[in-house]
Specification:
Order of helices and strands: HEHHHHHHE
Helix content: over 70%
């Protein structure tokens, strides 16, 4: 075997070993995606739900930054913006998109979302009362576990 062939074979073996974990992770992720319960929504409904999730994520970023700087007013504002209390108008209107989506989701989906919104209300309350940054971190971690649970169990697809 000449040097060029040897190097080519060595690189091929290295490539296989280097990318095997990546390929295995992609296959595992694909398998997990298929096992999640599908929620079929229209484009408008899906975009609404995804925007709610992005709002959660933006609030988490603001909460972490405000907690690190000790700015409890900013932290409370960020948490209140995605809390359940901020969504009272939509929840009280039976024709709102929230109730339309609720009819299309499994029974376990909305209690998880409600608990997440309530978790942000609780974070805002702590920021406004005791300003206990350690307790806020604990509550935020618990709330993020709800996000993880939702994403692990459900996937949103678009219907025409």
């Amino acid at each position: 075997m000449n040097t060029k062939s040897f190097i080519s074979a060595l690189l091929s073996v290295h490539f296989i070993f280097a990318f095997s974990p990546v390929i295995a992770q992609a296959e595992e992720a694909s398998s997990k995606t298929k096992s999640r319960e599908e929620i079929k929504l229209t484009r408008t409904e899906r975009e609404f739900l995804l925007s709610e999730m992005r709002d959660f994520l933006e609030a988490v970023a603001r909460i972490v930054a405000a907690n690190n700087s000790g700015n409890m007013q900013e932290l409370a504002n960020a948490a209140q913006g995605v809390g359940l209390k901020a969504h009272k108008a939509a929840l009280s209107n039976p024709d709102s998109i929230v109730h339309i989506i609720r009819k299309k989701t499994p029974p376990s989906f909305f209690p998880l979302g409600k608990a997440t919104h309530e978790g942000f209300d609780e974070i805002a309350h702590i920021a406004n009362t005791t300003a206990d940054s350690k307790q806020i971190n604990t509550l935020l971690a618990q709330n993020l576990q709800r996000c993880v649970a939702c994403h692990a169990n459900y996937r949103i697809s678009e219907t025409p």
